[in-house]
Structure formats: structure tokens, C-alpha cells
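User: Quick sanity check before I run a bigger batch. Here is a single chain. Can you write out its predicted 3D structure?
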Amino acid sequence: MLREAVIAASLTALMVLLFLDSWRATLIIAVSIPLSMLTSVVALSAIGQTINIMTLGGLALALGILVDDATVAIENISQNLEQGKELEQAILDGAQQIAVPTLVSTLSICIVSIPMFLLTGVAHYLFVPLAEVVVFAMLASYFFSRTLIPTLAKYLLRHHEHMGGDVESMKGSRNPFVRVHLAFERRFESVRTRYRAFLEARLEHPGRFAGLFLLCCLLSLALAPFLGRDFFPSVDSGVIALHLRTKTGTRIKETAALTDRIDQRIRELLTRGEIDSVIDNMGLPMSDINLSISISRIATLVR
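Assistant: Done. Predicted structure follows.
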């Protein structure tokens, strides 16, 4: 789990660096995100929740939104700096301009999670921790974007020169990071230009486009009967359970010899390295409950 977290954090930092072209701005965002997640974990502990699959899933779900909050704050401060404002004034104006929009966005995401608290039964215990961790992380992210990020920007962006601003002034640079950023900017600008042309064409006929969009949404409902409905999706846990029943009155010694032959045959069928261990449980009572619920298995193959 720690390795995956490090990989995710590194990829996030690289993506932010690619867009902002500033290691200082990347550092500010990289500091704010884990603080928001840690704050959410502390809040979970305060209400008696634990770290489990659902809460970790909630943190993964909120991670992308946390990056957005921090990136929007830094980018807006950078935009005010590029307008020639002093650092402190640029920070104040940048934070003020996005305060209400980001608050509305944060509350909207939190409100979406409220229906999960109305669930009952097993679903309630599964999805309520997920909703709680998302809400706590979002509120913490908004708090840090209004306090910590402007403070760090004041100290780390003192020598601010460029953060995605005038591309022409960097074309002669031999810095490999700058060259990669310029190549990315050229391709991104090309995509943005095509998107702008597409959007302008759609806005010329808004009624036709809205009707086509609604028609596609209605047609997508035809796929509903083909969707499966499972409590949990099927997973490959790497475990094969074999249930073997011998004739009534068979001695344990004979059953053991039979299971040994079965184990040997399994090892012959599977390639070397795919079998981790084989466990044989013999003499268990034969019943449907034992087969479906009990953790005891007559033969278990762990890969």
C-alpha cells in the first residue's frame, strides 16, 4: 500500500509540474494534499472509524479533487502575478476571486455524499465511511486552500518569474524540463484551439445540440437491462477451493492417501511457482452450511 501511495504522489507531482512549470508551485500542492488527507484520517479517528478498504477508497476518490483545489488556487495567484501585481496583493486578489466558486464546488461535492447516510443494512456500514472520508477531505482541502496555500505562496513565490506565462521568452532555453514543457504547451494549445472551434460551432445551434445530447442520454438508458447487479464484483483472489466427499465409512488413512494423490495431480497440472501452499482438512461434517460458510475446506490451493 505504501508503494502505491508513493507512486500516486509522484505521478501527481509530475503532472502538476508539467502544467505549471514551477517546482515551487508543485511543492506547495504536494504539501497541501497529504495534509488534507491526514486531516480527514484524524477526523475519522475522532468519530470512531478505522482505516479500511472503503476509507482508503474514499481517499483515492477525493485525491483528484484535492489536486484541483490546490492547483486552482496556485494558478490564480500566478495569473495575478503575471498581471504585474505585487506578490502579497496577487495572493490576496487570487484567493478572493476563487473563494466563493470553490466553496460552492466543495459544498456541492459534499452534498452528493449525503444520500449514503440514508442507506440501511450492510450497505450503510460499507459506504458511510467512504462518504465521511470524502467530506472531511474536501472540507480540509478548502480550509488549506484558503490558509496554507496563500501562506506558502508568499514565501516560496518571492522570486516568481514565470509559471506557464510567456512561452516565447523560454524558446531559447536549453533546460530539458523547459523544453518538455514547451512541447506539451504546443500540443495542448493545439487541442484547446480545436476544442474552441468545436464549441463555437455547437453554440451557433444550441437547441439542436441540446436535443442531440438529451437523445443520446435517453438512448443510453436502453443499456440498463444488460447491466449486471451484484453486491460485490467478481474478483480473482488466487484461491481455489476443492470439496471432496468419499464413501461413508472410509477410514481417515484412506482419505489422506486419496487427497495426497489429488494434491500430486494438481501439482502436475500447474506450472512450477504457481502454487504457494496446499492445505487439506479431512473428517469434516458434510453439510451445505459447512461448504458455503465455514472457512474449513477439504482441499485449498493458494496461488
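The chain is about 65% helix and 5% strand.

User: Great, the batch can go ahead then.
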